[in-house]
Design goal:
This protein has 162 residues and is α+β, with helices and mostly antiparallel strands. It has a single domain, classed as Peptide deformylase (Peptide Deformylase), CATH 3.90.45.10. Helices cover 20% and strands 31% of the residues. The strands form two sheets. Strands 1-2-3-6-7 form a five-stranded antiparallel sheet. A three-stranded antiparallel sheet has the order 4-5-8. A hairpin with a 6-residue loop joins strand 4 and strand 5. The radius of gyration is 15 Å and the shape is globular.
């Protein structure tokens, strides 16, 4: 498990992640993983979410910044419903440093997952949260946004604030 965010060439980013056994959710291993993910995400002011493969762990879990969502931990998430309406979004990724592109995603989704206590929840999302859920679900399936994005361009950090 890395405390750095892995970049495009890392093998874990291209592998499908495995589900966490619900009986393991309160284990030291899973609690440590979730706490590490939150800490890594907190250290990235531009980050809004982080999937376990981004720190080298191929388990089906992602965390969302509490600035964005009141349910910050999604374990074994399954997107149950995608809206037919798609939107074109400008997207980037902490694992694809400085690259941004346009990607089509469903405007709304409904996701089912377990929280960090092992409780099942269903959540409807639209806007930024719907985009995040789809982006992180892709990570858990071994896909990066650059696989389907168009108009990719490199924008360095110092250029973003111009």
């Amino acid at each position: 498990m890395s405390s750095k965010i892995l970049q495009t060439e890392a093998k874990s980013l291209r592998q499908a992640s495995i589900s966490i056994d619900p009986s393991e959710i309160r284990s030291r291993k899973v609690i440590t993983l979730i706490n590490r993910m939150k800490k890594v995400l907190d250290a990235c002011p531009e980050g809004v979410a982080l999937a376990a493969p981004q720190i080298g762990v191929n388990l089906r879990v992602f965390v969302v910044s509490p600035k964005i969502d009141v349910k910050p931990v999604y374990i074994n998430p399954v997107i149950k419903k995608y809206s037919a309406k798609k939107v074109l979004l400008h997207e980037g990724c902490l694992s694809v440093a400085n690259m941004y592109g346009m990607i089509k995603r469903s405007e709304k989704v409904t996701v089912e997952a377990l929280d960090e206590h092992g409780r099942k929840f269903t959540r409807g999302a639209s806007g930024l949260l719907a985009e995040i859920i789809q982006h992180e679900a892709d990570h858990l399936d071994g896909r990066l946004f650059i696989d389907k994005a168009t108009d990719l361009q490199e924008i360095k950090k110092d250029e973003k604030n111009i």
